Every structure is written in C-alpha cells, then in structure tokens.
Amino acid sequence: MATAIKDIQEDPRERALQEKVATGYQLEDVEEMTERYKNVLVNTIHIAADLEVVTLPTYSPAIKTSPTLEDKISIAAACQDELGHAQMMYRILEDFGYDTHKFLFERDPEEWRTFQMLEFPHEDYIESVVSMCYGDRAGYITTVDLEENCSYAPFARSLRKVNYEETFHVSHGERWTRFFWNHSEESRRRVQETVDFYFPLCTAWFGMPDARKTRTDQLTYRIRGASNDEMRQKWLSRVVPFSEDVGIKVP
Question: Which of 91, 132, 134, 178 is 20 to 30 A from residue 168's alpha carbon, by CA?
C-alpha cells in the first residue's frame, strides 16, 4: 500500500485517476488509463480468461463417465459456457493489443495462469457437480465483485452474461450434490470425500490473507471492490449453511 500512496503523491496523473475512480467513475476508453492502471486491469482480465479455459480439461473424464445422456449434456453445456466466457475476455484484451489466437494456441504451457483447484481432472460426475457447487460458487463470487465494482465499464458489462450463466452452474451443482448425498451410502461417501478434497482448495481460490498481501492496486484502482478475505468470507457464508443443511461435514 505504501507504494501506491507514494505514486499518488509523486504522479499527478495517477493521483487524479485514483481519486476519480474512488468516486465510482467508470472508464470507457483505453486513452483514459495510466500505464499502471492498464497493467493491473490487463493482468486481472488475463488471469480470469485463462482460468475459464484451463477449467475445460478437468471435465473431460466426467463427460465420459456421466451416468446418463442428460448428465453428459449438462457437463458439455457448462464447458461451452466457460469457453464463451474466455472468448469474451480475450476479445477485451484485443483492445490492448493482444492476439486471441496467439493466446490460445501459441503460448508455452508455463505461461498459462491457473489455480491449484483446477489442476485435478474430475474422476466422475459426482466430483464434477461437487466442484460446481463449491468451486463455481467461488468463481461466481469473484466475477460478481468485478461486475459490481470494476472501474473499467466494458469489462464490468461483459460479466453480466458470465454471472447469469454461472448461477446455473452453481444451482446445478447444489441440486446434484444434494441428490447424491441422499442417493446411496456409496454416493454419500463419494460426496463427502470430494468435499474434503476441494474445500481447502476453494478457500485458497481467493488468494493470500489480507494481512500477507502486498499488491493492492486492484483495490486502489477499483478493479475489484472486495478484498481477498472479504470474498472468502462471503463464500464461506454461502457454502457452510448449504453443507450443514444437506448434512455434509465441513472440513
């Protein structure tokens, strides 16, 4: 935070922009941005877009093992949604000089941004719906915060469709997590062990605790409105009551 304060004092253009967005003003044009603002915004969109794409391989095993055709279609539809979200975000990055084709097909694997939660392919349909219930809820809380607070208006507006579709992923996950919890002893055991595995990974989705976080420009420039801990707490306030209502033991 000290670095941000120093820049406000030393750079009149930075000070003017930060004070402007603090009032709720939203930028519509790249020309309004300082270089620092642009870097923070592009990095935020870049990470969000990559996460949408790297989600797709995790669903591949579940599509093959889904119990019914309807289940396969549900997973495939979710994948289609995620790819559409990524395409929309990459399109915004084109306004900053980036090439979507190169982003998708010419980058080295090490250059992709990912979170640990997305490193594990789903073994079966139960793992997919539990991941939707808890993991998509984490992603949804993040993108809702961006839609409601981001000071770059084109990005905020684009997330309206993203969040609308994510509500279906979350509700689908909640519905089928509850179903499999009550279906049989074996499916109940599988739900619990999947929650045990994913719950800590989902809490890590929101990043480092606020007390240990050193980069605060997302909040300084109002790219985001809530801190890591605030979003994490919001996630917990949703998933813990749901788990307790179903009977799932919270790790």
Answer: 91
